[in-house]
Amino acid sequence: MTTISFAQDALSHWHQALAIATGGKVFTTHGCSWAWQPARARLVLLFPAHAQEAGLRPGLAEGTRLGARRVDAWVNSGAPSGPLEAAGFTDAAQISWHAGELVSPAEPWDGRVRLGSDIPEATGADAAELKVANLWRDPASAGLSAGHPALRRVEQATARTLEGDLVGRAFAQQALGGQLAIHGLAVSPEYQRSGVGSALLYGLARGMVNPLGLEQPGQVELIAAASPRSAKFFEANGMRLLGRGRHMLLR
Q1: Can you tell which superkingdom this protein's organism belongs to (predicted)?
Q2: Model confidence, pTM
């Protein structure tokens, strides 16, 4: 059964994979786990159980040395946050954890969804982050020990109109329990609420569980960290609310 703790681990593994794939690193400082993602000059603190100044201070100093322009912290809603607040972190939009078996789209989107990381339109950080979909295929280049959870399989799906216009994309990383953790789902504003997001979920599930392209993706559980804007979308696609967490930013 998927729990909030399991969902937190899945998000941690994603941020670690993003860091390694884009030339960054993961490191720890006195009970704090960090992921440095140079493509966006972002340092991420991953679910500290008891963050203390002794761990925060050297981690933030390393972020300054690396040139971080943004520092995020993902925090369990029940974990003490006093030291984080004292260090300058404040709450951003609250996240909600969702998990469940995917519901087939009632009305399939009239377009194409494909798995793959070849996206000519991608530039800058978006282009750099596409490398995360190949990290698991070449684990020797990652500099991590064999079996590290950041090396779990990752695939990206893109949605294009019949005319070939790119209108959406999403990543999925295989979690340690066999679930698919959904990350970075985005749909062009003019195509939102038209079935593109559901088509991306369905395409990822089908492509990762039934690679031969069978009609049904099979029984697979998806997990996701939802923003207030995306929570209803995940619920409409069969994912139940597990609970809520905190996303904090260093101001």
Answers
A1: Bacteria
A2: 0.94
